[in-house]
Q: What sequence folds into this?
């Protein structure tokens, strides 16, 4: 156990975590440069394209240190986005230390802080690493000063490196060995292993990623999950090299995988503790909680015939992403679909993109919302995440919505603009903290609903890309909520309904009416689009009827050509949704969600 | 309306004296090829000798059929009469341009059995005629019609164009009034369509004139329909008006009702209904619509026939769904509309029909969904309201 080191790399997005991980893999496993696919740990297409890590990955690196001894370095990669902070915390719970990576040209940012706090919570050894020192705009002294002032870290302990150029990698590896303590725990104790991730293998079922704290696990063992009924027989254990590599056993201190005939990753909840059925450990590893979705939206197939393939795609998708929850939903306009719960907006986008890309689905996604709480006059409380289930207003006593604490770090010169967008979005109790000259850390209490659409993009725009953002859920607060309906020729388009704060209702209604007006093609009759709160119309737009589409001549030689044209148009209509007599193109549902320009 | 059980015969005459700048029909101005074309057409007709035995309409369209000399026309018609049977009351239409209609020609056509003249007047306003690049003047147009009437043509149709740039409502009414002074049995009133790729289309792209625009076109369409129906004409198809149902163009009705027709000449289309499925063993007895069409360019057409081959360039057998779509869209172009029977197959037919009735675009009369005047204006979109 003395020669094991378990560590993670934590960093704000783009500070070079994946690049450094690749470099470490390349050095220790002696992979020639040309064989190293860029960012080996980001294996999904989307991860590569977006340059973010969605699923954490793990690899065991063999390393002969300067002391001549061989070490086993377990690198546990963590997802790099606030949506996945719970997964990050579980990964960190499996480590003894972290490399805290800071971009020498950017300095400390919101997630640098958030991640550092998480690491400190777990009592981990922190190794500060300043990356991208090769950049001409690298400001080593500035970043060191920030580290000292804002992170309370010893700047002299920081390792200077360029993951890209391969500078300082040897120092990083030596620091991992010399500064991070070996794992504690005992192989003789009852088995206690923490699940920090799980992935689905078509042939083997769920592959559980875990850190063994105490005891030993080997094939043939009968296992139990502490928060879940049922037992499983271990088929295989092993560690991660470039591929899975089976071992005879995993013992206290090890990081590796277990395959135990678990069908879906849903049964292997991240944060759960694995133990032996026969000789269980006394206590679960601390910190387990069910991941709760915070953002909700419905997905519908573009063409109703594709419903069954959507069912199949969601089932398959969920095998690999236990965080996605869904249940049946239906809409008069869009037909059969699913109400889905996501960890955040990025998670939502990832799910949508992967369903479309990997599973070939064409989807319509409705306006995302949060989960509201309604206290009814009869004393009952209901949670509503779907506008279609909005209670009858006459029964409602109080409406509440979830609030977050939003933390924004920005150069001071953008503070005015940041303030403006936060106040517009009902931010309250602002606090400002000046960690360093020229920089502000602003925190607001804000409704979660206000940050799930557009907020991040707007923040990036008004801060010219410098602003960074992080949030924590706070509590539910009383709020004046209303249900906004969109009517097309007096028919409600249920898929466009949303729950909003009264003061934001008009703005939304106008926005939706305008977007629909742009997207719905003119038809044979006039179309009235209205935004309504109950019976009260608060916004409207009108699409005039087209007056004429008929061709002047149609004789024998024109019949086939003209029919072909109609066939083409009819095929195009398959993508239209009927609301009453009005055809609404799929693009209209998408356009409603698009970010405002400016 | 006249009975329509017989097929119709169409002849395409692909020649014009000069090209009108708005026209996208296929025609050539090299008249030296006319004789070769006459011979080729007679050869082509021979291919269908056994297949079509009787016609009750013959339509000579173009191009400019009136540039055929009486002798050329005589040769053609004689051959056709040898190959096919025509009913005794057959409607024989010839499209003519006013500048061709000398007294002699009119008399000769009549002798040859042409009993309906469709005259390409377009306008009785010289400014319009200049814009359209027509070879004739308003005066020539009047003279041609007077000549035809004098010769005793009892079935005259006038082609008129409207929604021309700069044409006012008043201008158009004047043209209509002059037209009515000849008490034509039939009128075709076409809105100007500026087609891309024509000289007029290019002028429009260059911004040399402004098209009337959708609003104006819509208003003029309704005005035309009201004006002519007030005078007693029957607006029986989007662009066609008849003095009483019996004067509807019997030949053209076939196109809109899937009555078979044979088209001869470059680019001509033919349609026929055959029994059973193509080659399918034991297939249920169904009627299939089959359409085929000739090579459009004259040279290819002549070459094929010189080599003893039919100049057919393409052919399709309509699927039941295609057949049905055609029934809908062709039906909605005509006042007769579409039988409810033919709509019932669509899952949403009742709501779709209800919506259209409510919008005042269609009315249900005696088991048929018939477009209203405003319905005609949007006829192209009506079939697509019906689906599953
Ligand atoms: N110049 C320079 N660029 C780097 C360095 N390390 C990473 N990058 C670049 O920074 C960007 C973000 O790196 P990535 O590893 O994806 O960051 P992550 O989001 O933290 O995983 C990429 O374009 C990398 O090529 C470095 O040491 N020097
Ligand atoms: S005469 Fe008729 S067919 Fe010939 S170019 Fe003019 S419009 Fe076209
Ligand atoms: Mg990355």
A:
């Amino acid at each position: 156990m003395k020669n094991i080191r378990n560590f993670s790399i934590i960093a704000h997005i783009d500070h070079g975590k994946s690049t450094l991980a690749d470099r470490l893999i390349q050095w220790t496993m002696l992979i020639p440069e040309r064989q190293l696919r860029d960012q080996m740990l980001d294996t999904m297409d989307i991860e590569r394209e977006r340059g973010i890590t969605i699923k954490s990955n793990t690899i065991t690196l063999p390393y002969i240190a300067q002391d001549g001894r061989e070490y086993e370095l377990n690198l546990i990669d963590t997802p790099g986005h606030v949506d996945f902070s719970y997964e990050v915390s579980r990964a960190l719970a499996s480590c003894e230390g972290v490399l805290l990576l800071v971009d020498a040209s950017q300095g400390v940012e919101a997630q640098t802080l958030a991640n550092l706090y998480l690491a400190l919570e777990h009592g981990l050894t922190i190794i500060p690493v300043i990356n991208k020192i090769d950049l001409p705009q690298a400001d080593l002294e500035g970043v060191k000063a920030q580290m000292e002032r804002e992170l309370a870290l010893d700047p002299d302990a920081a390792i200077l490196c360029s993951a890209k150029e391969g500078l300082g990698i040897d120092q990083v590896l030596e620091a991992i060995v010399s500064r991070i303590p070996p794992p504690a725990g005992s192989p003789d104790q009852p088995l206690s292993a923490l699940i920090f991730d799980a992935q689905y293998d078509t042939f083997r079922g769920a592959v559980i990623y875990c850190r063994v704290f105490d005891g030993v696990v080997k094939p043939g063992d009968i296992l139990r999950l502490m928060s879940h009924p049922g037992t499983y027989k271990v088929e295989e254990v092993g560690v991660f090299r470039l591929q899975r590599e089976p071992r005879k056993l995993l013992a206290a201190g090890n990081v590796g995988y277990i395959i135990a005939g678990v069908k879906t990753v849903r049964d292997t909840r991240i944060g759960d503790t694995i133990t032996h059925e026969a000789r269980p450990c006394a206590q679960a590893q601390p910190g387990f909680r069910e991941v709760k979705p915070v953002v909700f939206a419905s997905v519908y197939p573009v063409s109703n015939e594709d419903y069954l393939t959507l069912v199949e795609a969601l089932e398959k998708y969920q095998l690999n992403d236990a965080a996605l929850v869904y249940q049946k939903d239906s809409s008069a306009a869009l037909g059969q679909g699913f109400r889905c719960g996501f960890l955040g907006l990025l998670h939502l986008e990832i799910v949508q993109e992967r369903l479309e890309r990997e599973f070939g689905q064409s989807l319509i996604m409705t306006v995302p919302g949060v989960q509201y709480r309604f206290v009814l006059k009869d004393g009952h409380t209901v949670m509503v995440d779907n506008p279609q289930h909005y209670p009858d207003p006459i029964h409602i006593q109080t409406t509440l919505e979830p609030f977050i604490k939003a933390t924004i770090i920005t150069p001071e010169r953008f503070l005015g603009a940041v303030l403006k967008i936060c106040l517009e979005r009902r931010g309250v109790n602002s606090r400002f903290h000046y960690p360093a000259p020229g920089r502000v850390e602003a925190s607001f209490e804000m409704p979660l609903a206000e940050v799930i659409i557009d907020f991040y993009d707007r923040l990036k725009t008004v801060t010219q890309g410098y602003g960074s953002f992080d949030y924590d859920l706070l509590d539910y607060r009383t709020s004046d909520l209303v249900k906004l309906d969109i009517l097309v020729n007096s028919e409600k388009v249920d898929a466009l309904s949303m729950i909003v704060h009264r003061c934001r209702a008009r703005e939304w209604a106008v926005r939706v009416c305008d977007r629909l007006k742009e997207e719905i093609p003119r038809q044979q009759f006039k179309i009235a689009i209205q935004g309504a709160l109950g019976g009260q119309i608060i916004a409207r737009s009108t699409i005039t009827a087209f007056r004429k589409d008929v061709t002047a001549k149609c004789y024998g030689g024109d019949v086939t050509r003209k029919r072909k044209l109609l066939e083409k148009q009819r095929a195009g209509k398959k993508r239209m949704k009927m609301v009453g007599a009005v055809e609404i193109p799929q693009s209209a549902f998408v356009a409603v969600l698009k970010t405002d320009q400016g | 309306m006249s009975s329509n059980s017989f097929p119709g015969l169409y002849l395409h005459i692909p020649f014009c004296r000069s090209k009108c700048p708005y026209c996208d029909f296929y025609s050539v101005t090299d008249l030296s090829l006319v004789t070769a074309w006459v011979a080729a057409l007679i050869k082509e007709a021979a291919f269908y000798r056994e297949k079509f035995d009787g016609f009750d309409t013959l339509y000579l369209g173009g191009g400019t059929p009136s540039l055929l000399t009486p002798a050329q026309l005589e040769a053609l018609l004689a051959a056709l009469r040898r190959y096919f049977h025509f009913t005794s009351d057959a409607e024989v239409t010839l499209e003519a341009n006013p500048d061709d209609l000398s007294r002699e020609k009119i008399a000769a056509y009549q002798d040859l059995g042409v009993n309906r003249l469709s005259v390409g007047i377009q306008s009785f306003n010289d400014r319009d005629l200049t814009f359209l690049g027509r070879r004739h003047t308003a005066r020539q147009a009047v003279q041609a019609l007077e000549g035809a009437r004098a010769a005793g043509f009892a079935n005259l149709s006038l082609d008129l164009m409207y929604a021309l740039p700069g044409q006012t409502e008043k201008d158009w009414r004047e043209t209509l009034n002059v037209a009515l002074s000849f008490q034509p049995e039939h009128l075709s009133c076409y809105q100007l369509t500026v087609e891309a790729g024509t000289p007029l289309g290019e002028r429009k792209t260059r911004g040399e004139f402004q098209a009337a625009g959708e609003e104006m076109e819509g208003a003029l369409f309704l005005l035309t329909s009201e004006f002519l129906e007030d005078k007693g004409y029957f607006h029986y198809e989007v662009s066609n008006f008849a003095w009483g149902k019996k004067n509807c163009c019997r030949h053209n009705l076939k196109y809109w009702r899937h009555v078979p027709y044979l088209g001869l000449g470059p680019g001509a289309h033919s349609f026929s209904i055959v029994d059973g499925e193509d080659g399918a063993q034991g297939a249920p007895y169904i009627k299939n619509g089959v359409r085929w069409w000739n090579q459009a360019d004259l040279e290819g057409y002549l070459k094929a026939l010189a080599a003893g081959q039919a100049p057919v360039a393409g052919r399709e057998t309509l699927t039941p769904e295609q057949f049905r779509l055609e029934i809908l869209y062709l039906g909605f172009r005509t006042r007769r509309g579409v039988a409810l029977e033919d709509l019932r197959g669509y899952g949403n037919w009742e709501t779709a029909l209800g919506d259209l009735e409510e919008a005042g675009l269609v009315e249900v009369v005696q088991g048929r969904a018939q477009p209203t005047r405003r319905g005609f204006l949007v006829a192209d979109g009506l079939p697509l309201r019906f689906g599953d």
Observations:
- Residues A 11, 13-19, 51, 80, 131-132, 134-135, 162-164 surround guanosine-5'-diphosphate (ligand 1) (CB under 6 Å).
- The radius of gyration of chain B is 21 Å.
- Chain B touches chain A through 50 residues (CB under 8 Å).
- Residues 279-285 of chain B have pLDDT under 50 and may be disordered.
